[in-house]
Backbone:
């Protein structure tokens, strides 16, 4: 699962033009603090993080949960099947793409900002969505495996965080390798964007880890998130989808806030 400019702009051979984004999520323009050039722009980091959470991370969780209901209730896919995993991965990616493009279309319409280029946002959305498909697809298999091993709840969260964060990173790198041939605003993979992709993927891992908290049936006494984002058998489907989006936003927010205050200047994806 499961994607400011996620969740929800960023990889190899050199060929960077001024029109292309160096981070998978392209930051808005901010004035850097003039009194301490060595310090990160904390306000900028938190504003971008909030935009990503609204436009990509919440829609990713909502999209994953919605597609899981479709896969299980309408298609009859078992939750341990490949079909279920692929369906939820696609739902995750669609949530990121639609959330990202919708957010910027609304923002452009309201602000009239000529710097918002919808073709660029679409290309960026495709890159991020392709990575979200990867993390969203592996989420259920990873959780199934960790829970099947009877691991403590915290270990399931940590394992999902690492596994899905890695899948998202690999999806970004693959996207940067393949998509520049079709999408002009996607950078090819470079060392610079590899480090930014890695930091974004760590935060995405946090979103997927907290998403584990929606499972109210697994070790409820250990689930420290159950009273905040737990989805119970009696929870209405629509509310469950909203809770799912809230859980990913919460996990992303916790992980990204820690990164915002600890990463040196120009080392985080949202610098």
Residues:
């Amino acid at each position: 699962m499961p994607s400011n400019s996620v969740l929800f702009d960023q990889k190899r051979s050199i060929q960077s033009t001024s029109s292309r984004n160096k981070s998978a999520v392209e930051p808005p323009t901010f004035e850097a603090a003039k009194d301490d050039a060595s310090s990160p722009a904390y306000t900028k980091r938190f504003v971008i993080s909030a935009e990503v959470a609204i436009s990509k991370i919440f829609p990713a969780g909502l999209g994953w949960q919605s597609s899981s209901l479709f896969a299980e209730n309408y298609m009859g896919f078992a939750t341990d099947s490949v079909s279920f995993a692929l369906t939820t991965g696609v739902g995750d990616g669609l949530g990121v793409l639609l959330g990202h493009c919708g957010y910027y279309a609304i923002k452009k319409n309201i602000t009239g900002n000529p710097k918002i280029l919808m073709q660029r946002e679409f290309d960026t959305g495709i890159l991020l969505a392709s990575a979200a498909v990867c993390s969203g697809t592996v989420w259920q298999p990873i959780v199934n495996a960790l829970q099947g091993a009877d691991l403590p709840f915290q270990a399931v969260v940590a394992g999902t965080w690492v596994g899905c964060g890695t899948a998202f990173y690999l999806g970004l790198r693959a996207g940067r390798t393949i998509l520049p041939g079709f999408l002009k605003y996607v950078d090819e993979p470079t060392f610079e964007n590899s480090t930014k992709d890695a930091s974004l993927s760590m935060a995405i891992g946090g979103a997927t880890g907290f998403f584990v908290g929606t499972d109210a049936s697994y070790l409820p006494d250990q689930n420290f998130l159950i009273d905040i984002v737990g989805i119970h058998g009696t929870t209405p489907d629509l509310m469950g989808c909203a809770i799912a989006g809230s859980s990913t936003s919460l996990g992303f927010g916790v992980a990204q806030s820690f990164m915002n205050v600890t990463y040196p200047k120009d080392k985080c994806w949202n610098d």
Q: What stands out?
A: The chain has one domain: 42-262.
